[in-house]
């Protein structure tokens, strides 16, 4: 009995060591998540449409890098992808510092912010699937659901902490502080990754092309994208939503979302194995839709916080529930491509909707309201995909 407990503890520690790269990456992303839209709009003087387009550039580069990262993981192992991402995160800090230095020249500053967002997207594209695959190769496929769950906790927990801390750092040390912190975290992540052994696939001959793998995971990825609209709406618009109504602590919504997301992963850790991924995904989509409706019709900041928490709880198990099923649909030698292709749908669909929201709405009120209502509708459609 003691040996089993010790073995379980060793597995958990091993998992944490791999998903720590996810935490570092998304912590860096979260640092600027709440402050850049306001900086572009208020400090540089650009419109909300421009601010939204610049922020959304991250997801364009993420989209193109995901497929490439899958090929790297399947062919050379996940370690090179992690190292590349950590270097990129450090570079984002450098260009963020330069962008803030030229804040009195708005167009020049915006140019460096564009570079920053593109580099952030490259880093996210590489870090998205590599820690999960690295952990699966290290501890075995039977722990896939737990690995994906732990990785999600690291991802959204880091975003929640980073978003709140980023506001504090920006207030005390400006964007210089966020840039320096990003550089240091990227270097630390790179050095830690260098100490770990790389893992590679042994059944290369059984590998399928990325496009064939993408076709197999597409049904699950589509449902994931629909569910991802909830987080896309909150992360992009919530600070501006609060700012429009003159509410305080808009970044707190991201934190509440993250806390409930983490709680859902930890409390309902074994639900996927007990009830199956499809049933769990449907239930989670329903809960997420309820949360978005609460935000859409909130009359004060407290109600909006409740909606963010419900949305986070609903979104918590969608990725692992469908991810486990998606991975099982392809050979083990294509797990890197499967997870990369599976994650593509968030970038292509739900994150792409952020740009559409910024460009097509007539007023700030319409933008924000449409964003959350769009999430309501598509989450409802997502629920019907497997019904």
Summarize the structure.
The longest helix has 51 residues, at 144-194. 83% of the residues lie in helices and 0% in strands.
Layout: helices, strands, pairs:
Elements: H1 2-31, H2 36-43, H3 48-76, H4 79-101, H5 106-127, H6 130-139, H7 144-194, H8 210-244, H9 251-267, H10 271-275, H11 277-296, H12 301-315, H13 318-328, H14 335-350, H15 352-360, H16 364-385
Helix pairs in contact: 1-4, 1-5, 1-6, 1-7, 2-3, 3-5, 3-14, 3-15, 4-5, 4-7, 6-7, 7-9, 7-13, 8-9, 8-12, 8-13, 8-14, 8-16, 9-12, 11-12, 11-13, 11-16, 15-16
Walkthrough of the structure:
With 387 residues, this protein is an all-alpha fold. Helices cover 83% and strands 0% of the residues. It is built from 16 helices and no strands. Helix 1 runs antiparallel to helix 6, helix 4 runs antiparallel to helix 5 and helix 7 packs across helix 13. The longest helix is centred in the middle third of the chain and has 51 residues. It starts with a helix and ends with a helix. The model has no long low-confidence stretch (mean pLDDT 81).
């Amino acid at each position: 009995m003691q040996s089993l407990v010790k073995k379980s503890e060793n597995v958990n520690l091993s998992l944490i060591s791999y998903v720590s790269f996810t935490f570092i990456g998304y912590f860096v992303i979260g640092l600027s998540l709440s402050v850049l839209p306001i900086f572009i709009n208020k400090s540089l003087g650009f419109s909300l449409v421009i601010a939204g387009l610049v922020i959304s550039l991250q997801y364009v580069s993420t989209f193109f890098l995901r497929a490439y990262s899958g090929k790297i993981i399947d062919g050379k192992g996940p370690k090179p992808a992690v190292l590349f991402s950590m270097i990129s995160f450090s570079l984002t800090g450098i260009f963020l510092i330069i962008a803030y230095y030229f804040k009195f020249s708005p167009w020049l500053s915006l140019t460096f912010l564009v570079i920053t967002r593109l580099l952030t997207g490259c880093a996210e594209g590489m870090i998205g699937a590599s820690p999960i695959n690295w952990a699966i190769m290290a501890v075995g496929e039977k722990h896939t659901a737990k690995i994906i769950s732990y990785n999600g906790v690291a991802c959204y927990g880091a975003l929640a902490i980073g978003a709140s801390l980023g506001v504090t750092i920006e207030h005390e040390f400006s964007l210089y502080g966020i840039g320096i912190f990003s550089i240091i975290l990227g270097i630390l992540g790179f050095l830690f990754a260098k100490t770990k052994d790389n893992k590679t696939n042994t059944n290369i001959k059984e590998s399928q092309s990325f496009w064939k793998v993408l076709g197999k995971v597409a049904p699950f990825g589509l449902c994931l994208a629909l569910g991802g609209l909830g987080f896309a709406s909150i992360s992009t618009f919530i600070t501006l939503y609060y700012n429009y109504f003159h509410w305080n602590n808009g970044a707190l919504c991201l934190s509440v979302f993250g806390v409930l997301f983490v709680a859902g992963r930890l409390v309902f850790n074994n639900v996927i194995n007990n009830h199956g991924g499809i049933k769990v995904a449907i239930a989670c989509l329903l809960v997420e839709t309820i949360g978005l409706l609460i935000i859409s019709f909130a009359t004060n900041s407290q109600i909006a916080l409740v909606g963010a928490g419900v949305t986070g709880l609903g979104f918590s198990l969608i990725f692992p529930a469908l991810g486990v099923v998606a991975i099982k649909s392809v050979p083990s030698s294509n797990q890197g491509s499967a997870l990369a292709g599976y994650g593509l749908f968030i970038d292509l669909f739900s994150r792409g909707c952020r740009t559409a929201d910024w460009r097509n709405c007539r007023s700030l009120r319409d933008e924000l309201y449409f964003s959350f209502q769009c999430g309501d509708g598509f989450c409802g459609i997502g629920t019907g995909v497997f019904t």
